[in-house]
Each structure stands twice: as C-alpha cells, then as structure tokens.
Amino acid sequence: MTNLPKDIERVIVDQSAIAERVSALAQKIDEEYADVESLYIVGILKGAFIFMSDLCRKLTTPHTVDFMALSSYGMRGANSGAVRIIMDLRENIANKHVLVVEDILDTGATLNYLTRTLGSRRPASLRTCVLLDKGRSEVETQVSYLGFQIPDVWVVGYGLDFAEQYRTLPYIAELNQAIRKKSA
Ligand code: IMP
Ligand code: MG
C-alpha cells in the first residue's frame, strides 16, 4: 500500500482480509446460535464500533444491539488494570443470550472485568467476540470468537485509536513507535 498517513508504520491487516474474516466469524456465530431466538449483542465503545457494525450486518441470527463504554485508568494506553463503567447497558440481560464484541485483547483486564460483571447479571449465555489479540494477556480471559492474532505493537484503524486519532482508517495498522514515546 502506498501513501500511508504520517505516523503509520505498516498495514497489519488490510481491508479485504478484514472483510473476509468478519464474514467467517458471522457464519460461525450463526451456526452456533442457530437455535437461539434472539441474540443480545453488546458492543464496547469506542473501539469496537466499526467491527460491531460490520459483524452485525453479516449475521442472519435475529439480534438486538446495545453498547457499553468502559474506561481503564491511565492515559494513552498506559494501563493500570483498573476498569470502570462509563456507560452501562440500557436493558437487564437476565435470561438473554449475550455476545460481547470487543476490539482488542491486550492485558486482558477489560475483557476479564466484562465477563465477570455481565456474568453476574445472570444471562442465559455469555460469549465474547474479539477482533484482535496481542497474545500477552496476563489474566484469565475467555475469547469465544477471535478475528486475528497480531504482534504486540500499538495498532490503529478499523475503530482503534491512538489519542482518539486514526479510528476510521479502513485497515488495521501499526503505529510508528516514535510518536507513542513522544506523547507518553
Ligand atoms: P486490556 O484491558 O489491557 O486488554 O486493554 C484493552 C483495551 O485497551 C482495548 O479495549 C483498547 O481500547 C485498548 N488497547 C489496547 N491495545 C491497543 C492498541 O494496540 N490500539 C488501540 N487500543 C488498544
Ligand atoms: Mg476498548
């Protein structure tokens, strides 16, 4: 790919690979929820918004969507592991089949917190669909559906940001290391 934006090092997953994988994930989810009347899809803001919208539109399983916003303490990716809810779900999920859609697994703290918190609300079932995994999760996490395993670098695009920038790039790319250090 030519003409990458400034501060983008390289493309890790291009647009067509993303589209192909999202379709495959949707197909697998449809197969496994074939007997379910309705699925309650929970997107985690902001990072999962593009992945979630593409995934939902590929599903044939009847579903509704809701969102949660979480925050980990610390700025610009500096992660202390403490997570809190900024915006909660609109509905009670008791007895619902819940599928959490998240952008990326880094330390695993966010997903771990989510599965514990939502699990305690007594859903009929709870699974997770995560677009990217950096493979360095330190805590116990259960990913039911995974998009891509990627190297342990800071990635942006397709919903993911660095200091709120680059979310709407159509591909997933590695950010130049120098800019992270500069603003850390
Ligand atoms: P964890 O709780 O350490 O697993 O971090 C997960 C959250 O950190 C994700 O939901 C993202 O919001 C953010 N994050 C971690 N790594 C990256 C990255 O490479 N790019 C953008 N956001 C990231
Ligand atoms: Mg996130």
How would you describe this structure to a colleague?
- The protein is an alpha/beta fold.
- The chain has a single domain (15-154), classed as Rossmann fold.
- It has helices at residues 15-32, 49-58, 109-119, 177-183, and strands at residues 8-13, 39-45, 63-72, 83-87, 97-105, 125-133, 145-149, 155-156, 172-175.
- Strands 4-3-2-5-6-7 form a six-stranded mixed beta sheet, sandwiched between helices.
- The protein starts with 7 loop residues before the first strand and ends with a helix.
- 30% of the residues are buried.
- The protein binds inosinic acid and magnesium ion.
Q: How much is the radius of gyration in Å? A: 16 Å
Structure classification: alpha/beta
Query: Spans of 5+ residues with little confidence (pLDDT < 50)?
Result: none
Query: β content, as a range?
Result: 25-35%
Order of strands in the sheet with most strands: 4-3-2-5-6-7
Largest sheet, strands/sense/barrel: 6 strands, mixed
List bound small molecules.
inosinic acid, magnesium ion
Mean pLDDT: 92
- CATH topology (level 3) name: Rossmann fold
Distance between the termini: 28 Å
CATH architecture: 3-Layer(aba) Sandwich
CATH class: Alpha Beta
Counting structural domains, the number is 1
Task: Kindly state the number of beta strands.
Answer: 9
Shape: globular
Q: What letter string, H or E per element, gives the SSE order?
A: EHEHEEEHEEEEH
